[in-house]
Specification:
The chain is mainly alpha-helical. It is built from eight helices and seven strands, in the order H-E-H-H-E-E-H-E-E-H-E-H-H-E-H. The protein has one domain. It has a three-stranded antiparallel beta sheet, with no helix packed on it. Strands 1-7 form a two-stranded antiparallel sheet. Strands 2-3 form a two-stranded antiparallel ribbon. The N and C termini lie close together (12 Å). The chain binds iron/sulfur cluster (2 copies). The site of one iron/sulfur cluster has 11 residues, from loops.
């Protein structure tokens, strides 16, 4: 598990850094979602990498819940959204993935170097499609590349969110099993 534990720590460190880098945006623009809206978590087509869910998978394994969640994901094609989306929102919020942290709280630069706000139609209606030029917002592609640099194999391929979570759980459980056997 040494390699997995290392990856988990590195990804968590990246999340902490992102939180720090997002402070100015949060203080300047009200990017909070309405408390009752969890629409984007109910979209199972949201794409994520395996690596961003390694810390969550490690936490679930430590808590003895990894196999239970894996079981729920076996029929993930029938799930109506992310396996962790509930009526009160994300049930694993502190361990959510990178895309969960960046959506509605980041920008991408378009060809004219304008900062296009990455968000849903509701937040676009509130803030517009573009944030003012000097808004200190995380650039989504930069953070994706930072994640990829931690482990290119697990950090660059994108899957529907439940598939990414399932793969992360399988890797963590399998590695743990090999460690115990060896
Ligand atoms: S990003 Fe948009 S769709 Fe997602 S929870 Fe926030 S307001 Fe709702
Ligand atoms: S893990 Fe991400 S996609 Fe899933 S419920 Fe939490 S915030 Fe939503």
């Amino acid at each position: 598990m040494k390699r997995i534990a290392y990856l988990s720590r590195e990804v968590r460190a990246l999340f902490d850094e992102l939180e720090e880098a997002s402070r100015d945006l949060f203080s300047l623009v009200d990017v909070r979602c309405p408390a009752t809206c969890h629409e984007c978590c109910l979209n199972p087509a949201v794409q994520a990498t395996v690596l961003e869910f390694v810390p969550l998978a490690c936490r679930l394994m430590d808590e003895g819940r990894a196999e239970e969640v894996l079981g729920q994901l076996e029929g993930s094609a029938e799930l109506k959204g992310c396996v962790f989306a509930g009526i009160a929102g994300c049930s694993v919020y502190p361990d959510r993935g990178l895309i969960c942290r960046l959506f509605a709280a980041s920008v991408r630069k378009d060809r004219q170097d304008r900062l296009e706000y990455i968000a849903c139609s509701l937040l676009h209606a509130r803030h517009g499609r573009y944030l003012p030029g000097q808004t200190p917002a995380p650039v989504i592609t930069d953070w994706g590349l930072r994640l990829e640099a931690i482990d290119p194999a697990m950090g660059c391929a994108w899957y529907p969110v439940n598939e990414a979570i399932r793969r992360a759980l399988e890797i963590v459980l399998h590695t743990n099993h090999l460690d115990r056997a060896g």
